Amino acid sequence: MEIIKYPGREEWNSLAKRPALDVTALFDTVRTVLDEVRERGDEAVKMYEEKFDKVTLSSLRVSDEEWEEAERLVDEELRQAIRQAKENIWKFHASQRFEGKKVETAPGVTCWQKAVAIEKVGLYIPGGTAPLFSTVLMLAVPARIAGCGEIVLCTPPTREGKVHPSILYAAKVAGVSQIFKIGGIQAIAAMAYGTESVPKVYKIFGPGNQYVTAAKRLVSLREVAIDMPAGPSEVEVIADASANPDFIAADFLSQAEHGADSQAMLVTDSGEIVEPVARAIREQLDRLPRKEITEKALSHSRIVVLRDKEEVIDFTNLYAPEHLIIQTSDYASIAGRILNAGSVFLGCYTPESAGDYASGTNHTLPTNGYAKAYSGVNLDSFIKKITFQEITAEGIRGLGNTIQVMASNERLEAHKNAVTIRLATI
């Protein structure tokens, strides 16, 4: 883990770089799989499941019996935790409902917006080293609140052809319509193009490895919308001398254990906390079962000591972290000046884990600096807004000349005539 003290501003851009891979190098491989699935449907999906996930599937769809079995296999303590998390996520996202209002922009001219749910959405839940049932809640709950008619979920099966019971239980609690045992590129292709088994959707959500990321980018060029550009997960901690080094270390490691390409960053104006934090990280790391993965993430993580709070805030807005934890005595003041971040965690008792699981906010967030322009997943992610306008005779009489002058000056005479012909009847 690098420790950088008092870097000049000209060095900040290089310090803000992530260990992200260039997924464009994977496009040729990804296109081959996408094209096969588009042309051959289920047959190609099953072929790639056998090749990549090492499983032979007779059916891609999770059966009703498998759903029922999953509920029996999940212990009551976890079922209760999933239900409580779902309730908090529901409350927070339900509060985001859009309330449109009619506006009379001029006499006789009324405009308004209507929020309409995206009819069919696809959710991708990675497999790998941990069953991400929490992501099922983060995506399916707002989709259900929005009123999406069909919520399709794809996730890689085990080599026994099963889906982890906790994923199935979370999907049931959250209101998923159908689940398919498909992973990787072939899952994105199936949802983007549709197959004999998998419905074509209009927008795809969810994290994944570099191949999934590349596949989402490619299908978004023509076929479907996607939630946002994605990369490895990351956290920044802002701390001062009042912060608890053990808390900072725990936050660092909770992020680093996500994956070998994750990144954690401590940004501080207090050089005296550097060694206590580094020591706490070493001590806690030794107790982690995912130590090897975590160590790899720490190899491109950093502690950056800056001169004052102004530099800390400016660097943070440049870095634009996915997760931002502020453990300072004046955290509310600093939070008010944060412009670029996916989700912010305030005070010493607010770990990133809370947002990852159960506080109610969404954990599907922009990474790799995209927080400068993108929001995390929220209710609006599952909604499109349609505008309406209604103009009376009085309205077109008052607005007509403005429209005619503008259309004429753009040399669009048919546009002008659409108004002229109406005015002639009034």
**Order of strands across the biggest sheet?**
1-11-10-9-12-13
Determine the fraction of residues in helical runs and give it as a percent range: 40-55%
Question: Which structural class matches the secondary elements?
Answer: alpha/beta
Strand content: 15-25%
- N→C terminal distance: 76 Å
- Uncertain ranges: none
What does it look like?
With 426 residues, this protein is of the alpha/beta class. The protein is built from 17 helices and 14 strands. The strands form three sheets. Strands 1-11-10-9-12-13 form a six-stranded parallel beta sheet, sandwiched between helices. A five-stranded parallel beta sheet has the order 6-5-4-7-8, with helices on both faces. α3 packs antiparallel against α8 (184-193) and α6 runs parallel beside α7. The mean pLDDT is 95.
What's the SSE blueprint?
Blueprint: E1 2-5, H1 12-15, H2 27-40, H3 42-52, H4 64-73, H5 76-94, E2 103-106, E3 109-117, E4 120-124, H6 133-146, E5 150-155, H7 165-174, E6 178-181, H8 184-193, E7 203-205, H9 210-219, E8 225-226, E9 234-239, H10 245-256, E10 263-268, H11 274-285, H12 291-298, E11 302-305, H13 309-319, E12 323-327, H14 331-335, E13 343-346, H15 352-357, E14 383-391, H16 393-409, H17 413-423
Parallel strand pairs: 1-11, 4-5, 4-7, 5-6, 7-8, 9-10, 9-12, 10-11, 12-13
Antiparallel strand pairs: 2-3, 3-14
